[in-house]
Write a structure and sequence with these properties.
Length: 133
């Protein structure tokens, strides 16, 4: 009820670069609450040119390796899209949203609270599916 939804100051459209986008995704993820056993890496996927904007797609892959199982059985991905407007003033910040790999629900930084359970559910569902095959 009284939870403060965290966000960061996103870069302006004119200052955006692919590298800066990746750094800002990492900075934003650092505001999330998750157990220290989770590891992740961020990868730039592609640039999508649209009529009124350019979208930059990134993937953040999550896993929980252990000493006994250093190679995880499954991973969970969170896909980020950073949208740089071609028509709005270049001094405005970029638009950012993210989607979990098994969902169509679009999340926006500063509007929703990240839940570690989302990652756990994705991995558990993948393991259940692999075991059933």
């Amino acid at each position: 009820a009284g939870y403060d939804i965290k966000n960061i100051q996103w870069t302006t459209c004119k200052d955006f670069t692919v590298q800066r986008g990746q750094e800002q995704i990492e900075e934003y993820i650092s505001t999330w609450e998750f157990h220290e056993s989770w590891l992740h890496w961020t990868q730039f996927l592609r640039e999508e040119d649209m009529k009124y904007s350019t979208r930059y797609h990134y993937r953040v892959c999550w896993s929980t390796p252990t000493r006994r199982k250093p190679i995880p059985r499954a991973t969970a991905s969170v896909y980020f899209i950073i949208e740089v407007s071609k028509i709005k003033p270049a001094t405005l910040p970029v638009e950012v949203f993210f989607i979990l790999e098994t969902s169509r629900l679009i999340h926006r930084p500063g509007e929703c609270r990240f839940r570690e359970k989302w990652l756990k559910d994705i991995i558990e569902n993948k393991i259940i599916l692999m075991e059933s095959l």
